[in-house]
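Provenance

Sequences were taken from public entries as deposited. Structures were produced by running a predictor on each sequence independently, with no templates supplied. The record for Urea ABC transporter ATP-binding subunit UrtE from Alsobacter ponti is shown for reference.
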Amino acid sequence: MATLAIDSIDLYYGAAQALRGVSLTAETGKVTSVLGRNGVGKTSLLRAIMGVQPVARGAISWDGRDLGGLAPYDRARRGIAYVPQGREIFPLLTVRENLETGFSPLPRGQRFVPDEIYDLFPVLKDMLNRRGGDLSGGQQQQLAIARALVTRPSLLVLDEPTEGIQPSIIKEIGRAIAYLRGKGDMAIVLVEQYFEWARDLCDSYAVMDRGQVVLAGDKAHMVEADVRRHLSV
Ligand SMILES: Nc1ncnc2c1ncn2[C@@H]1O[C@H](COP(=O)(O)OP(=O)(O)OP(=O)(O)O)[C@@H](O)[C@H]1O
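Predicted structure for Urea ABC transporter ATP-binding subunit UrtE:
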């Protein structure tokens, strides 16, 4: 079992501090939900995990190895995959080509799309030759998750996968996350604003407010009113 250990990180954009002493852990076989309003630093936390934004202080390790100084590409090779906010599908590439962009961190023998991915998101199999830009928002979200899964991650981080998605597809995505959790070989960090959905899927949670983690713990000890206080505007 591997652990993502984030220890007291600070992150700045120029002079503006977006993260203040943020600590978080996530473990294999578990979903860790990170909740919070717009602009409290959730995406910045994920950028720090992926190495797309440097941290000024603190440390991040995955599976006992410090990620400090590693480029995003090297983190992907260590099994960390990212489903960005807004999905970032390549609109002019086909669904198949979008999936194949996930091959780059893989050794040659693993450069194929596992059937399991089409079992999770059958719509993608029917649309392999369609352009990414022609898919609905929900289909693009499924494609973004599938593309991340193509890299065979051991740590999957998702940034607001329900944002702007219709309820039936939110359910499908929830089922996929629950399935991946149940397989027991992946740690999942789920950034969300949709409280009930993130609560139902998670084992542990953290709530962020103004760049800090203000509440965290196991789901069993989650007090809804306390969490909601930090989610309402
Ligand atoms: N590239 C950037 N340059 C300057 N400031 C930024 C940049 N990206 C984010 N910020 C600021 O950092 C703070 C945290 O933003 P962040 O995107 O991490 O929050 P968030 O909780 O993910 O919000 P959202 O749900 O809207 O994505 C905000 O005040 C935001 O304005």
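The domain at 3-43+54-231 is CATH 3.40.50.300 (Rossmann fold).
Residues 167-183 form the longest helix (17 residues).
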